[in-house]
Amino acid sequence: MDRLFNFSAGPGTLPASVLEEARDEMLAYKDAGASVIEISHRSPQYTELVEQARGHFRDLLGIGDEWKILFLQGGASLQFYQTALNFLGEGQVGDYVVTGAWAKKAMAEAKLVGETNEAASSAETGHDHTPDPSTWQVSDRSAYVHITSNNTIFGTQFANDPDPGVPMICDASSDFLSRPINMDRYGLIYAGAQKNIGPAGVAVVLVRQDFLDRIPEGLPTLLDYRTHAAKLFHTPPVFAVYMVEKVLRWIKSGGDLAAMKRRNDEKAALLYDRIDATDFYRGHARTNSRSNMNVTFNLPTEELEAAFVAEAKTHGLVALKGHRSVGGIRASIYNACPREGVEALASFMADFEASNG
Ligand SMILES: Cc1ncc(COP(=O)(O)O)c(C=O)c1O
């Protein structure tokens, strides 16, 4: 069967060329005489590829050795707790900008560790925007401000890196490496790989050395970031890291992150232009908070939404149903979602409206 245009929110579409390369290497990786998932994580082959992956992150983000790049397990969700455990010190406050379900979960986990403050929230208006940083009520005992750069479920995204005057911790799971990042604003950035940068199974954590220096003694070994920054402590998720290296190489082959952003903005505009053309499609996000990764919208009735999803499938456009908590339609158009797929969806939207509007 041919590949369909897959708008899954995650795990999401990966570049076909990356999948082909992995397929071709499946039985024997380079000179290893075995696949990459059958050799030691301390072998020269794996050591080389993990260092290459780190090099790609450094090249793409323009960062040096002051940033440690870790490949951890437990998904982005473990990072909700682990970030607080490491950085929410006694007498300090963890500030959270609650822009959706994931941010709320992050704050709930931090509460298990210490004091938290909801610095801003978009809950009252159904998480249809990212609150303006000038309105945030950041604690004067703030250890960090935690943000979710892109809200996968609601389809909102910060237009720029906010500057709350305190280092930020960012859950970048659903827009990592989709655009340039002002790294100076952050102490730690984490992302589950399974949307923009690889398969499920690895959470990539970038942490700055001065943040590592704040970590107290006595944390459980595996939950202390310094354990992983110091050395390869235990078996990493080798296959996921192997795929991440390939995806990053693919990103670099298309230019820098500014070029990636241009392509993503153009793809998103194809859908938002369609949404804005008439009242038939109603975008969930306010225009100044729109995500160029997850485009969320409603049709006039739930019946029409169900028909839209079903009919789209017959055109080879799949995984368009909105998250169960919000309903409607969600088109996830991550880095690897090809422009032709987005064009096909925009054209389907026009046809569906013509027949049902
Ligand atoms: C923004 C965001 N954060 C966290 C998560 C949870 O990631 P994981 O399943 O890797 O724990 C998701 C998953 O969709 C997400 O979109």
Structural shape: globular
Terminal CA distance = 33 Å
What is the third-level CATH name, the topology of the largest domain?
A: Aspartate Aminotransferase, domain 2
> Over the alpha carbons, how many angstroms does the gyration radius reach?
21 Å
Task: Please identify, by name, the CATH architecture of the largest domain.
Answer: 3-Layer(aba) Sandwich
Order of helices and strands: EHHEHEHEEEEEEEHHHHEEHEEH
Major beta sheet, specifics? 7 strands, mixed
By CATH reckoning, the class of the largest domain would read Alpha Beta
In total, how many beta strands? 14
Count of the domains? 2
Low-confidence stretches: none
- The pLDDT mean sits at 97
Helix content: 25-40%
Heteromolecules bound: pyridoxal-5'-phosphate
Quaternary status: single chain
Number of helices: 10
Explain this structure to me?
With 357 residues, the chain is α/β, with parallel strands linked by helices. The protein folds into two domains: 16-253, Aspartate Aminotransferase, domain 2 (3-Layer(aba) Sandwich); 255-356, Aspartate Aminotransferase, domain 1 (Alpha-Beta Complex), CATH 3.90.1150.10. It contains ten helices and 14 strands. The strands form four sheets. A seven-stranded mixed beta sheet has the order 2-10-9-8-5-3-4. It has a three-stranded antiparallel beta sheet with strand order 11-12-14. Helix 1 (16-24) packs across helix 7, helix 2 packs across helix 7 and helix 3 (75-87) crosses helix 4. The site of pyridoxal-5'-phosphate has 11 residues, from helix 3.
